[in-house]
Amino acid sequence: MSRNDPGPEFWNVLRPHAGNLVDFRPTSRGFSSDVTALITCEKGRFFVKAVRNRPGGRRDSIVRERLINPFVCPVSPALRWYAEDDGWIALGFEAVEGQSSDFAPDSPDLPAIVGILNRIRDLDLPNVAQNWREGRWDRFCANEAEAEILRGDALLHTDINPSNLLIGEERTWAVDWSWPTRGAAFIDPACLVVQLISAGHTAESAESWAAGCTAWKEADPKAVDAFAAATLRMHRAFADRTPDASWLRAMATAAQAWTDHRRVTI
Question: Which domains does the chain have, with CATH numbers?
Answer without folding.
Answer: 8-94 (3.30.200.20), 99-262 (3.90.1200.10)
